[in-house]
Amino acid sequence: MSISEAEKFQTVSVDAVQSYWDKRPCNVRHSPKPVGTEEYFNEVEWRKYFVEPHIPVFAEFERWRGKKVLEIGCGIGTDTINFARHGATVTAIDLSEKSLEIACRRAEVLGFQDRIRFFRANAEELRSYVPSEKFDLVYSFGVIHHTPHPGRVLDQLLHFVHAGSTVKIMVYHRWSWKVLWILLFYGKGRFWKIKPLIAQYSEAQTGCPVTYTYSRSEGRRWLEEHGWRVTDVRVEHIFPYKIEDYKEYRYNKEWYFRWLPRPVFRALERAFGWHLCLTAEPKAEPADPPAEPSISILHRPFASEPLPEGGGTETFDTPEAVTLNRARLAHLQSLGLPLRNRSVLDVGCGVGHLAQFFLKQNCRVVCLDGRAENVDSLRARYPGLEPHVANVESDLSAFGRFDVVLCYGLLYHLENPIAGLRNIAAICSELLLLETIVCDHRLPVLLLDDETKTYSQGLRGLGCRPSPSYVVMCLDRIGFPFVYGPKVPPDHPDFRFDWRNTIEWRREGHLLRSVFIASAREIESDSLVRLVQP
Fold first, then answer.
1. 3-state SS track over 171-227
2. How many alpha carbons fall within 13 Å on the CB side of residue 142?
3. Backbone dihedral region of 508: left (phi > 0), alpha (psi from -120 to 50 degrees) or beta?
4. 498-526: string of b/e by CB count within 10 Å (b at 16+)?
5. Structure confidence by residue, pLDDT tens digits, 412-467
6. CA distance 98 to 25
7. pLDDT computed for residue 189 by the predictor
8. What mean pLDDT comes out for the span 282-306?
């Protein structure tokens, strides 16, 4: 691959690659049977291995019985199932959401869901998606050459292997019969255009955004430059059938292959096959983890810390706080939720500013805050409210049950957010409206963080920064069967940011915030998107 052509592929977005494979997952048309049925999956497997009989030989399914396998780019799961069928425990990832839907269905239909974990993941950032563990085999067949930066994938894989691990990768072979066929049939002999032509026609669906090809020596060097020792290189697979007949599930060979003796055809495949099959192992033994974790935490005497200047109840009245509350309430109004004439509990109410929204909706409002100073200020400002001092991490049953619970700006101040959510769920009959600072990560993770002694912060100086999936998983598990997010976030910089999977919870001078709506009943609304699938 020339530098200029490689640079073109490197500018392609991963989203473009995903979109391409979502339109038509690989091998999805290998059977005319209804997609998702056992008959469909059996026929797909038969056809795949009939046309590509070298795959079971290369994969060595039986060898991995009782072992852990990581498959990069599982597609609709043909090889995945065979690893599981032969006794392996499989972790399978794919970029295509549509492919994974079919693969998951396949595992359920064929009864292997207990042996397979599926993740939708960008292999170039594998560590951000897949929990860190060691695998005996890393397997990828016909996948890595379709990502903009294949070398990054090889670098990521080193974090998932041990000294005895094996990696088996198939990428496309440049000096192959298929490349010659593309050059003659589509390129009309214009060899100077061969690289974009290969990408255009490398797959059954034309227009693949990225397709790298490698010679034997380039494939070996590519692996070795990224920390792998190549132990075997072989070339396989020439497709001998008439394409139009093949589309109709008829297996008639082209005339020029029909009369070739089998040994001659196999020799041709080993010299000019389309599949470059590489087997390797990690060059160096992965470093053992340190005997003890590296910990560097400074002691903090929170109880003796003074209240910072401006850290009293006035912190709820700063211009920044006022602007944020306006955006919160305008957004809440825009959602069109059934909030009139309800009983409402405002937890973490501060000095009661947000509760005014519900009073205007003719609601009965009870307010809870963990600080007596905030509750005293609330009584002076808003005599019509019913305030109490209470920590939501403790039992709240004494306050009764409420149609709606408002939990805006509280969750991230809690030491034990799950305990707080469980206590809230126990007294919430219908709707929980929740807004929180979040950390930017796809996995359900929770960061701890020190907070100041300010009256708007955590009671004991220790708060948390949950990821969105952490919040959603908690809400589902504690008893809310329907969890939603708004399609349009509040009109404030804290809510409008790009997801980067960086685990940050503040960026460019702003906190990162999200809104969640948990409900005991299904909500029909064009403003919301469901976050927990049935």
1. EEECCCHHHHHHHHHCCCCCHHHHHHHHHHHCCCCCCCCCCCEECHHHHHHHHHHCC
2. 20
3. left
4. eeeeeebbeeeeebbbbbbbbbeeebeee
5. 999 999 999 999 999 999 999 999 999 999 889 999 999 999 999 999 999 999 99
6. 7
7. 66
8. 73
